[in-house]
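Hi there, hope your week has been kind to you so far. Thanks so much in advance, here it is:
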Amino acid sequence: MRTSAKEAIQAGQKYYFTGIPCVNGHISKRFATNRNCVMCDHQRKEKKRKQLKTNTKPTKVYRIVEFAPSILRKKVKKFRRVRPEIISDRRVVV
């Protein structure tokens, strides 16, 4: 097993081992391509799997009120008043 990422990449290996603990204190192999700790990567993937399994990922909620025609018209009017240069650039004069 190589001791640096550069050596491992040149030798065509996927991992290397330094013996130095990572930020989280793991003393394990590291990936040669991104230099991440294998144990940290494993824990990150496990956390992601649990999150997807329990569906705790926050979902995006849209407020229907914002898309009501009357409110949308008010927003467009305000935008046209505040940023007329954008609107005038897009208008086609025939």
